[in-house]
Amino acid sequence: MKKLKRSARLVELTQFLLARPHSLIPLTTFAERYGAAKSSISEDLAIIKEVFEEEGMGELQTLAGAAGGVKYIPRVSNERALGIINDLCVKLEEPGRILPGGYLYMSDLLGKPHLVNEIGDIFATIFGGQNIDVVMTVETKGIPIAYATGAKLNLPVVLVRRDHQVTEGSAVSINYVSGSNKSLHTMTLSRRAMKEKSRVLIVDDFMKAGGTVRGMIDLLAEFDAEVAGVGVLLDSGTVDSEERLFEDYVSLVTLETVDPKSRAIGVKPGNYFEK
Amino acid sequence: MKKLKRSARLVELTQFLLARPHSLIPLTTFAERYGAAKSSISEDLAIIKEVFEEEGMGELQTLAGAAGGVKYIPRVSNERALGIINDLCVKLEEPGRILPGGYLYMSDLLGKPHLVNEIGDIFATIFGGQNIDVVMTVETKGIPIAYATGAKLNLPVVLVRRDHQVTEGSAVSINYVSGSNKSLHTMTLSRRAMKEKSRVLIVDDFMKAGGTVRGMIDLLAEFDAEVAGVGVLLDSGTVDSEERLFEDYVSLVTLETVDPKSRAIGVKPGNYFEK
């Protein structure tokens, strides 16, 4: 790459770091890439660090020494998270979302890549400090959230399927009981999908009693893997605590009431801010 | 926001533009945001434009006049696209991917958010100039590619389901015949998912004879919508042309041979570079 001036270097460095979250990049990489002295690169990084922190975009960690370098840790400030979650609450309360049976239509919101990426940013913020090897979800609606989170944590995503697919090779299947209506379901995961002893972040779009999450945890046991965290976009606040099959999770929004008669939906920010 | 120096402004502007592809942003937005003169912002943008172009990251379009502003159009250079696709070819030819029945395991590759985002960048490059309202895919494995593409084109994503879900409200279902083994399947799309007359980019992970894509196009007709383009990660080069149900598509990689006996897989870059 040709030698760049500081101004151009700042642009290049910014995009390079944003595209590689949670990756340690040695200063020599930049020094060689831009034909600049390490001291100049350090000055550039100090400018970027200040802007990222001021903007509530996250942290630039610098590690000194031979094995050192710089690492971009995306992090959403509480203020920005609250803004995103409040917007989501307003949209979720639109009366037109109520479906027969008291279900909530939210595919339009989950269909907005920009919003889904913001949700991923929030999960990456709360789970970014933990020791995690892989992000897991079960098809279908949690998939974009899992990828958005995985992208920001620089982690692979593993998809649990409802049925065994020929394109997944040999697989492990389990049965699980849905907590809300006690019906029996199957989920299956390719044997190749995960190494033993993996530490797994489970992500999903919605959790009622937690039967699906419980099922994923049972599936993890078959892989000798363990759960490192659970994040759901929306949880239901109407479940009795004795009915709840899983307690230790992070939710961004809590659904309090859905009344098909009056077409009223009540939501509030989830337990994210209590964590 | 507090008044920023040029160096800090360049960092901020770069991240702001990267986060908002295909969005027209008036110069006054930046001028107010950074407490700077429009002429200074224009100079900043010229620097960013040069770096983006030099790096093969895309274009910064500036529109003059009262309704003017700047728009970041992500675009992957042919050189970078070839690098990504060649890497993909090498990985796809690993003999361990062959599954019983001659299927190819690729969930590990589709599970890498960084790679999936690069695939989205390539689709956004080839379809970015077209008039598209929405990106569509059918569950499951095409979903991350659809979101990566939608994010870079600043477009919503619509998911076609295999079964009608209670969380989707009233839906339109069709039957379609898979081109390769002539079996009958169903696909369904929520009535709320798409406006009439929408122009739709169809994206998927794999296409053999094209039965699934054909099905999605039939489904579009029910919504009075039309197909604006079709992009698949992998297509099969072993399908006879009279067997093929759909011809006009872009593929990144073409699967030429899968021989379970010798465990040999042959792939080559798809028709992307011919488009």
Automatic annotation (TrEMBL), chains A, B:
Boundaries of every Phosphoribosyltransferase domain copy: 110-237
Keywords per UniProt: DNA-binding, Transcription, Transcription regulation
Signal sequence interval, chain numbering: none
Gene3D superfamilies for this protein: 3.40.50.2020, Winged helix-like DNA-binding domain superfamily/Winged helix DNA-binding domain
Annotated coiled-coil segments of the chain: none
Origin superkingdom: Bacteria
Limits of the Bacterial purine repressor N-terminal domain: 5-74
A Pfam family annotated for this UniProt entry: Pribosyltran
Family per record: Belongs to the purine/pyrimidine phosphoribosyltransferase family. PurR subfamily.
Subunit structure of this chain's protein: Homodimer.
Name of the featured protein: Pur operon repressor
Protein's organism: Saccharibacillus kuerlensis
Gene: purR
